[in-house]
Each structure stands twice: as structure tokens, then as C-alpha cells.
Amino acid sequence: MITQVKRSKHCNELRSGFTTGACAAAASRAATHYLLTDECIRQVTITLPNGDKACFELFRLVHTSEGVLASVIKDGGDDPDCTHGIEIQCMASWYAEPGIHIDGGEGVATVTLPGLELPVGEAAINPVPRQNIYDMAMAEWLACPPEQHREPGLALEIRVPEGKECAKQTISERLGLVGGISILGTRGTVKPYSTSAFSASVRQSVQVASANRLDHVVLTTGSRSERSAMEMLPQLNAMAFIQAGDFVGVGLRAAKRYQIGKVTVVAMIGKLGKMVSGHMMTHVSGHAISFSQLADIAAQHGADEVLCGDLANANTGRHVLDLVQASNNRSNPSAVTFSFSASRYLQALCCHAAKYATDYVADKVMIEFRLIDFDGSLLAQYPADSRCKQQSGSCNRLISPLTNRKNHNKDCRNEKHAAINPARPPN
Questions:
Q1: How far apart are CA 236 and CA 245, in angstroms?
Q2: How is residue 33 annotated by DSSP?
Q3: What is the pLDDT of residues 18-31, one digit of tens each?
Q4: What would the pLDDT profile of 286-301 be if each residue is shown by its tens digit?
Q5: Where is the signal peptide, in residue numbers (predicted)?
Q6: Any alpha helices (H) in 331-391, and if so which ranges?
Q7: Orientation of helix 291-299 relative to helix 342-360, angle to 10°
Q8: In terms of Cα–Cα distance, which of 74, 77, 103 is closest to 90?
Q9: Model pTM above 0.70
């Protein structure tokens, strides 16, 4: 859901914004007010779910043949969300049955799969914003003299004209949310760069997969790795593929919690380089790649001093990959002594990351790691045979904070694991 980042006018602070749920509540209150009183207003004030007051400028407030249509433009502040700037509408009309009846219209998704907070077949208006919409409309209903009530009830239809198009930038359809976006927000406000929102979406994706009886999910670190994963694993349901980004750790813990049998992590060298050190949360501002550790592993797999020195002083994960592949091309296949193998080395990195991930889930989930190149081609994986359990062989003796790293790497080297040829395909 990340689009171009919008900056605050103030260099040292980022603006908070409003959720789709808060905008829907504002539009609903304005539409209800105009329907009941025939008073045209330009602004509307609501109470957010967190108890704060918020004032919204109205973008649209008109009588139509259906009732009253009101809308606001969603201001997401400096949160990089695709819903920033879209119009959130409410159509308010009289209803023959008592009560306030809330539904979704154009651009609001319909729930088609189990595993979410809402039943299948219902509009994707989450419980907290639905209650907020109800409360704001009810406040207007109660403030209006009963003799002005033309019918015993009200119908409120939430609409998002750009919702269907906006949903293409989200994972909504994979979660069974079809036809638009969800109306969300437990507080009413959004904080800029909310990592909690992203991690919650990863956790929810695993929960939905589990609720739909999937036993194998694939955590990817971005759109390129996801495309590659889908090509490698075409037999899996699309729901199994989850863009975890920097929150692979969240996905792993969720897989343990919701009793997923197997997790495949597909990543490129930058993210994998961090997970080799046991860092399952890989944000750029968090843990850096330990290039000295990557050099140490290379040394234990036959790399010479020159390569080890270059790896220890590498600048990026991509630099590491270039150095390793270039060195492999220079190796002497006729040498009697053990020569460095890029394929074995890259698989060892997958092996180390898999062990840490297994520890991360207390050995409750089968873990597979796949390393891909920047063109999406497969470089290495562990286990080499994805059908076997990763706990077999020398990876029982993988490095941990209590294990001697050099002894472990010697074991891995002597194990003679099979691996994928890391050579890039011809242009």
C-alpha cells in the first residue's frame, strides 16, 4: 500500500491523518444531519473512536433522488497510504424499519473468505468504524424532534468511488476482500509510517491463510520476491503468498500461533544477509548486515584471504553477491585442495537463516529459505530438496549464540550440500 511519501511542511515533524473509518463517520453524520434538518453545512465535527474531537471540511453535500449524499476527502497526513486524497461518501436515506442500517456500496469491499473480523458476505466495514458511523448518525437522530422523522429508520450506504482502483495497490483481494477497499480504523487517526499497521496486516494474512486451511505460506520481502515465489511455487493458492517486507519475524510468529505447517521465506541478498545473523526484523534503520560474519562463513567454506577481506569490507548485500560470484568464476576446478564454491556458500547462508528462523518459532514450524537474484532467478535454497525437513543433516549444528561458529561452519562445509547454480542467466 506504500505510494509516494508526502512530507509535512515542517521539516522536523510528520502530520497525523484520519482513517477511512473516521472519514466515513464524518460523511455519515453530515448526510444524516442534512436529511433530518434540511440544513446545508460546510463542516462537520465528530467524536473519533479514541475520544478525540475532529472537524472535517465537506467536499460534497447534495440532495439526490436516493437521499442525501455527503463526502469528505481523506487526509492521511504524512502516512504513505494509497487512500490519501480519495473521496469517502455516505448516501443517507429513509428506511421503513426502525434503527440505523449500515451497508457498503461502490468501492467498498465485500468479505468473501473466512478468517477476518467480519462474516462472509458482509461489507468490509470493520466493527470499530461501523460503531463510530452508527454513533454519529444516532447523535443526529436523537437531536432531531421525532415529528421530523419521515420513517422509523435510516439507511446509510458508505461509498468510495475510487475504491476498486485503489484496492489494486493493496493485498485486499488475496484476503478475500473483493470489489474495493475496507473501511478501517480503531482510533480514527493514523500515525505516519505506522509499522504497527503493516505488521498487523502480515499477521492478519497468516490468520486468513490458516482459517482457509492452508498449511504452507510463503513470506516474501517485496513485490519482486513475491513474483519470483509465485513462479517457483505455482501449485500454491494465491492466499499463501504474503508480502512481509521487513516483518518476516511477525509472519513467522503468526505461523506458529495459527499452526501453519510450513513457511518458505523468499528473499534477496540484502534481507537474507540480516537474517543470517538472526535478525528477522530487517528494516533499513534497524540491524545492519554483519559483513564480518559473512566473511567468516566464506572462510569456513574455502574462500581465500583476498575474498574474505573484500567481503568484510563490502558495502551492500549486492556487493557481497557480486564478489562471491566473481570469485567463483575465477576458481580453479582442477585444484586438489578444497576450492570455494559460490553455490555452497549461498546455500550455507540460507542454512544459517533457516536455523535462526526455526529457533524464532521454537521449532514448531518447518522452515525453508530461498535466495533469489535481482532478476528473480533462484540462486540457492535450504533445504536443497524442499520436500525434506530442514532439521536433518548438519543444520542441527547450525550456529547459535551458544555454538562455536567456526566449528559449525566446518561441519556445514564438509556436509557437501547440493545447491542451485548461482550463475546469472545469459542476457
A1: 20
A2: H
A3: 999 999 999 999 99
A4: 457 889 999 999 998 8
A5: none
A6: 342-360
A7: 120
A8: 103
A9: no
